[in-house]
Amino acid sequence: MTAPLNARYELRTSDKFGRYIVAAKDLKAGETIFSDEPFVLGPNSDSSLVCFNCYLPLLSKFVVCKKCAVAPICPGEGCPEQLHKTWHSDMECDFFRSIKLTNGLHPMTMVQNVGSLLALRAFMKKTTDPAAWKEFMEMETHLEERKGTKVWEFSENTVKFIQSLSIMDDIPDSELIQKICAVIDVNSFEVRGPPLPALGCAEVLRGVYLKAALLAHDCVGNTHMSINDNNLLVCHASTNINKGEPIFYNYTDPLKGTSIRQQHLLIGKYFKCSCRRCADATEIGTYMSSVMCPECKTGYVSRSTPGEWTCNNCSKTFEDTNIGFKVQCCMDKFGVINKKDEKELEEYIRNVSLILAPNHYLLLEAKQRLAGVLRDTINREPRPTKKLMRRKMELCKEILPVLEILCPGISRTKAITLYELHAAMVQLAKKLFDGREITGTAYMDELMLAEKYLKRSLEMLFIEPGNSPEGELCAKALEEYRVLKTTMSSVLDAIHAEGKCYVSPVEANGSETQ
Ligand SMILES: C[S@@+](CC[C@H](N)C(=O)[O-])C[C@H]1O[C@@H](n2cnc3c(N)ncnc32)[C@H](O)[C@@H]1O
């Protein structure tokens, strides 16, 4: 079946994916595929209290809406003006007011059921937007698989709450409300809520986007999603996508190993992923779930068949329990160390490097955390050491090749890592030059390379919404690019003033990772 939706993509169905979309023409990396307004947006089922109007966290105080005297909203001067959307609609307000008058609905009932607000608002769309409601109800639910499970039981709270409201004389049957909860669970996206102006903290919300929900999953996606502070979702191609190829979104964390990703997909999305990465014990050559061979000490041992692991060097096989125990120990240890402490992270990396393959997901996470700790120390200390800068560069260079394989093309994590690599390079090169440890030419070489990383990072950051943290990083990176160009120009002038000629090694041999 082919149903054209717009010029860039079209809808297909298959036994494997259900409905999914494919490119209707060749798409270039960075090209916008579609943008999508939320059908419904609201707090997570386990959220703390948020303002029903703007979704700002209500930390300790709240007032109730003057009109309905039920909905908890921002105290003081009310919701900040820059938050354009008002989610507590007139229709909802009238509805709350009428049940307050007839049933004595109390604001505390709403406060206690904030986790059901999203389902309630979705249900109200049945009346306010029947066409979109119909599309929403056609989404995948896996309702039968949910029956009798914990998640079904948990959703019974929402069932009871919505039924207790007797909405517009229409008491929905429990299966309908269970279905709404299921559509939300299977199809929603995480959305960053608005941050509290002074504190910066924000609640994680969930949004259902009817176009974006049609994307099938692959553990190596080919799209990049961003959601701006108006909650508009924009889907870009992250790599070139040929006409007819499926457009995939990675529903899981690409930096987790196969067993964790598959478990997440099975529990939350009810399918067993069989993508190229999941089918490959080496995870496309990254060996992200492999361990060092206890026998030959040089090979990587990966799960070859269920229950058995094999070394890629000496071919020795090991039992699942044996390897599983080692990985579990490393995982348990990671769970208890202080991940903000440089020494503890270094010690962890040193110890588990003897057990896990170099790109194991636990090691990668530890390295990412350590790079973040080093960044904070370097930016905080008045005279950070060269050792710190070198180590941060080393970590970024170890992480990047894995990201290139698992997140090809445009990737937020890759953009941030490239930015951090450039920053450490510039800081170190300046320190070395100021200390007369390197010549102007060597300084220039480093700046040229850092510029190359920064430019690649900027190419990816440009598509981030301006007011998101990544958009703010983009603005910062642009300013740093301007400063870097000025520095490079004065270093070049100084080289020329000495009567020398400068030839960039970056341009001469095209090398990127020295
Ligand atoms: C967000 S929905 C995608 C739209 C859905 N296919 C539909 O027809 O409404 C997620 C569901 O699509 C299916 N799906 C997506 N990617 C898949 C994949 N790689 N393998 C198997 N099923 C997949 C699963 O049923 C999953 O729960």
TrEMBL record:
Give residue ranges for domain SET: 7-252
Note the PROSITE patterns from the entry.
Answer: SET (PS50280)
Q: Which domain of life is it from?
A: Eukaryota
Q: State one molecular function term (GO).
A: N-methyltransferase activity
Q: Would you tell me the protein name for this molecule?
A: SET domain-containing protein
